[in-house]
Fold this sequence. Notes:
With 199 residues, the protein is mainly beta. The chain contains no helices and 13 strands. The model has no long low-confidence stretch (mean pLDDT 91). Residues 1-23 are annotated as: Disordered. This is DOMON-like domain-containing protein.
Amino acid sequence: MPTITVGLRPFPGTPAASSNADDDTPLPVRALLCTMHATSDGGARFVFELDADPARVRIPAPAESAPADELWQHTCFEVFVASPGEEAYREFNLSPSRQWANYAFTAYRERDNAFSAPAAPRIQYTARADGLTLEAELPASSLPGITTGTDLQIGLAAVIELDTGELEYWALKHPAPAPDFHDRGGFVLTLNMAAPEAA
């Protein structure tokens, strides 16, 4: 399957976006990349690579891999998935703690409270001297139902908690005047989904 690697951008006004070229103070977060591709079983894999000073970024403590709410209040990586032409979409919150959330929305910020995540994502977190890597595999059953070969619209984002407690908001595109990962103007990638391989 084709592999796509993209760079996320900080929301304007955050320290990473408003650095002064005359200031020699290193930024806490230097870059954030994400690589994505469809998997042979109809799912999708996302690998976030954060280039940062580990001493200046707060990472949630390890926890049991289980669903949890409000992960976005701390360092958390997010994936938004929608079918073209549909108002509905899914949101995945993926924490370095290995906790996760999977929400369904029928339209912009209209959450489907009857939705229950059908499967857990598989999350691997690796701390590095120059940052961290988080890899998440989303099972096919957790993605919007589509016809084989259909492109999915993807939005990628992250909340990074600095050692000061300040939150930085990173995304592929910031279409709104305030950080808003749900804005469909930020779902700027397409991912072609593979037909599951026969057993």
